């Protein structure tokens, strides 16, 4: 058993010793059985949140309404959730109320896929009510119970299905796939933020091409922001050579596939509720991509782009099969006299000390000196720059 479970074992034991049932559940059990990296262990128990809190010195109410308490134990945190069922999914998303129950079976029934409905006790024994072990072995994603009903309860599960396809390199069971095809429009009820999280995980998974194909084939793509009617443009995605390795690269790639004009990019990123920081990074990639497609960039253009943007743009160009002299570009960037604005030997204050007044002219002078240094026409040290400025007068 991986260390992460060994460390968490006393938490289960504490609950058991107090007379409650407790299990590891969900993603961690699935991942340990697949010999995949386990990033966090979730615990499910018959104890009520108040009872859980009494058993541990340090706890935080992270989702008390849904029965979740986060417990700190030996410098690790664990989400402990009371066995529960969900009911009244009035609006195709999240239940209206959760009801705590006294047995594990009810709790496992509410989970999305058979491979996510496995539980493990302190002895390492697996509880498997829906043949999740079989599906794990055969690499199958299958809804727990009737897929149609389950997707009506929570339409996000359709996105989760394709996300797990990509991450785990699994196939989609036929009835589950058909139910997505028949109910994709329910995705419209789901918040963009929740969809985005699954979409990004799908895009970054090792099997993203196959998953993306299913995302298109089932028409799920028609119900996410700005993708409606764009299947033809997006259909290139599954044929691409590499998987993007970063979220910003994924968005840049999608924007390029959609042949989106520059003035639309901001709106697109906003529709998907991406952060300003992500949007700015993506815009820098697109700008450099356009520039490189147009002409060999100057040293100053490489400097302005910066290392991160350059590396990301090269990655995106490779994925798109765009021929690009990536090594030469990197070599040229690495050979630049300065690689970041802050590396310039002087700053605005230096110019003010020399008698310049703050203002637009000062900024222009600073830019000019920086450009001269980047171009290798001026040495990057104070004396050389002072000499140069003196001679200008
Ligand atoms: P990851 O490795 O991405 O964390 P995970 O399976 O742990 O994968 P989570 O979103 O962390 O996914 O959810 C934990 C567990 O809760 C799942 O394994 C599943 O049993 C259950 N679950 C999560 N979201 C849903 C949902 N929308 N419908 C039903 N069950 C869900
Ligand atoms: Mg998880």
From TrEMBL:
Residues 170-225 form the tRNA nucleotidyltransferase/poly(A) polymerase RNA and SrmB- binding domain. The keyword Magnesium applies. It is an enzyme of class 2 (transferase). NCBIfam families: PRK13299.1. Its cofactor is Mg(2+). HAMAP family: CCA_bact_type3. The keyword Chloroplast does not apply. The gene is cca. A single active site specifically recognizes both ATP and CTP and is responsible for their addition. It holds the Pfam family tRNA_NucTran2_2. Residues 22-142 form the Poly A polymerase head domain. PANTHER family: CCA TRNA NUCLEOTIDYLTRANSFERASE 1, MITOCHONDRIAL. This is CCA-adding enzyme. GO terms for molecular function: ATP binding; CCA tRNA nucleotidyltransferase activity; magnesium ion binding; tRNA binding. Homodimer. It comes from the Bacteria. One of its GO terms (biological process) is tRNA 3'-terminal CCA addition.
């Amino acid at each position: 058993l991986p260390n992460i479970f060994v460390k968490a074992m006393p938490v289960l034991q504490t609950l058991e010793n107090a007379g409650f049932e407790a299990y590891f559940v969900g993603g961690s059990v699935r991942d340990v059985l697949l010999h995949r990296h386990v990033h966090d262990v979730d615990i499910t128990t018959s104890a009520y949140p108040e009872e859980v809190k009494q058993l541990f010195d340090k706890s935080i109410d992270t989702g008390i309404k849904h029965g979740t308490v986060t417990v700190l134990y030996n410098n690790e945190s664990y989400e402990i959730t009371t066995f529960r069922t969900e009911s009244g999914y009035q609006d195709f998303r999240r239940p209206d109320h959760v009801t705590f129950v006294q047995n594990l079976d009810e709790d496992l029934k509410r989970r999305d896929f058979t491979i996510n409905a496995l539980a493990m006790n302190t002895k390492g024994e697996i509880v498997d009510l829906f043949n999740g072990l079989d599906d794990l072995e055969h690499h199958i994603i299958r809804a727990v119970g009737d897929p149609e009903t389950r997707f009506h309860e929570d339409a996000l599960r359709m996105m989760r299905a394709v996300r797990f396809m990509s991450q785990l390199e699994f196939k989609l069971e036929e009835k589950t796939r058909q139910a997505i095809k028949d109910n994709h429009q329910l995705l419209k009820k789901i918040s963009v933020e929740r969809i985005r999280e699954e979409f990004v995980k799908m895009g970054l998974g090792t099997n993203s091409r196959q998953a993306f194909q299913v995302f298109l084939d089932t028409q799920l793509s028609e119900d996410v922001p700005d993708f409606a009617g764009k299947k033809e443009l997006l259909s290139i995605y599954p044929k691409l050579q590499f998987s993007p390795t970063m979220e910003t690269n994924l968005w840049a790639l999608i924007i390029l596939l959609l042949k989106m004009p520059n003035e639309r990019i901001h709106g697109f990123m906003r529709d998907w509720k991406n952060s300003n920081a992500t949007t700015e990074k993506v815009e820098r990639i697109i700008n450099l991509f356009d520039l490189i497609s147009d002409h060999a960039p100057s040293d100053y253009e490489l400097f302005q782009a910066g290392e991160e943007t350059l590396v990301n743009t090269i990655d995106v160009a490779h994925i798109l099969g765009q021929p690009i002299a990536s090594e030469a570009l990197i070599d040229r960037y690495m050979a630049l006299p300065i690689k970041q604005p802050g590396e310039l030997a002087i700053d605005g204050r230096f110019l003010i000390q020399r008698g310049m007044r703050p203002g637009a002219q000062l900024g222009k002078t600073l830019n000019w000196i920086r450009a001269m240094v980047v171009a290798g026409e001026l040495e990057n040290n104070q004396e050389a720059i002072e000499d140069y400025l003196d001679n200008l007068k």
